[in-house]
Design a protein that fits this description.
Blueprint (H helix, E strand, L loop, with lengths): L2 E6 L35 E6 L14 E2 L7 E2 L26 E9 L4 E9 L11 E5 L8 H6 L1 H10 L7 E5 L17 H22 L9 E6 L1 H12 L6 E5 L8 H4 L3 H7 L2 E7 L5 H13 L5 E5 L5 H12 L5
Parallel strand pairs: 7-8, 7-9, 9-10, 10-11, 11-12
Antiparallel strand pairs: 1-2, 3-4, 5-6, 6-8
């Protein structure tokens, strides 16, 4: 049997999601291989096999939409907002309130064998006399350590939330999730797929120790949160749920198909129930990748694993990601 594997992927780059063409080579695929999940893939998969009979037609539910980017969208009764949208101006810089500090720092990565960069937000009034919890915030496939600040204005959102007494004062770390020596998001960003998986080691053995040696932090699982957007959402679920002794708060915002299958994410539901303080899943109802988060939600629900599932009216875009950050930040470290 001859088969060709096509990868359809969405970028976390505003204005660069659309139609186009990509030259791909055929991959030999054994007959009968289940391609519902392709390890390391970063997009929806479609297998076109010569001579393969078509799958039986499935009746579409009433709320099926043409997804465009990512694929068709089917919304069920659980796919609804759990919270109101943030208030107008939540992401606008305000005068007359204290502002935190944003700095770019370097750290030595034994995993990659080079010096790497990450962006760090410290809250207003940061002092070494106090210990702070830490949120590690991961970017999408087309981004780097600058993406969260560029797309969402993390420092502005956190400053405003702190001024309104809606969050615990925290440090926010925005590393580069592409763990390779040339970690810039240029050229074919999909070529670095292996580096996104390698970042698990970099995060655990290089990033976290660097932060905990340089800043005044509470260095235990109850005071570490991990969340991300798109590809970073998949990383956060994979790494966070895979290391419950390290993270107690985990969030995936419109997680991409690099997310592990649900049964691999949470192989021990009883342990997840015991150790997780918060497991957050969110996506926009116009996001063609919503099926990824829907699948995780359905599995968690079937296993009675407590979690929050929030579906707003957005697509795979910065509006959802900044909204999700605003809501998620208020529910961690409490």
């Amino acid at each position: 049997m001859n088969a060709v594997l096509f990868l359809v992927i969405g970028l976390s780059i505003p204005g660069e999601i659309g139609t186009g063409s990509l030259e791909v080579g055929p991959l030999g695929v054994a007959q009968g291989l289940n391609l519902a999940w392709w390890p390391g893939a970063l997009g929806g998969l479609s297998l076109l096999a010569e001579g393969e009979p078509a799958a039986p037609a499935r009746k579409a539910p009433p709320r099926r939409r043409g997804g465009g980017f990512g694929g068709p969208i089917e919304l069920g009764p659980d796919d609804k907002p759990a919270f109101d949208d943030p208030p107008r101006g939540f992401d606008a810089r305000r005068n007359g309130i204290p502002h935190g500090k944003l700095e770019m720092i370097e750290y030595s990565s034994k995993t990659v064998g080079t010096t790497r960069k990450m962006q760090v937000y410290t809250p207003p009034g940061y002092t070494s006399k106090r210990k702070y919890p830490v949120l590690y915030l991961l970017h999408g496939i087309g981004g780097d350590e600058n993406e969260w600040q560029r797309l969402a204005g993390v420092s502005v959102i956190l400053d405003n939330l702190l001024a309104d007494r809606k969050v615990v004062a925290m440090i926010v770390v925005m590393p580069n999730g592409r763990a390779q020596k040339d970690d810039r998001a240029t050229g074919n960003v999909f070529a670095g797929a292996a580096a996104f998986a390698t970042f698990e080691q970099d995060l655990l053995t290089d990033v976290i120790p660097a932060i905990e040696s340089r800043y005044s932090v509470q260095a235990d699982r109850e005071h570490r949160a991990l969340a991300g957007l798109s590809m970073g959402g998949g990383q956060s679920l994979n790494f966070g749920l895979g290391h419950l002794d390290t993270f107690a708060w985990v969030g995936g915002f419109s997680s991409a198909p690099n997310t592990k299958p649900p049964a691999q994410l949470v192989p021990d539901p009883a342990q997840a129930k015991e150790k997780l303080k918060l497991l957050w899943l969110s996506c926009g109802k116009r996001d063609g990748l919503i099926r990824i988060s829907q699948g995780v939600h359905a599995y968690l629900k079937s296993k009675d694993v407590p979690h929050l599932w929030h579906v707003d009216g957005n697509a795979h875009d910065p509006t959802h990601w900044k909204n999700a950050l605003y809501l998620f930040a208020q529910r961690i470290f409490r």
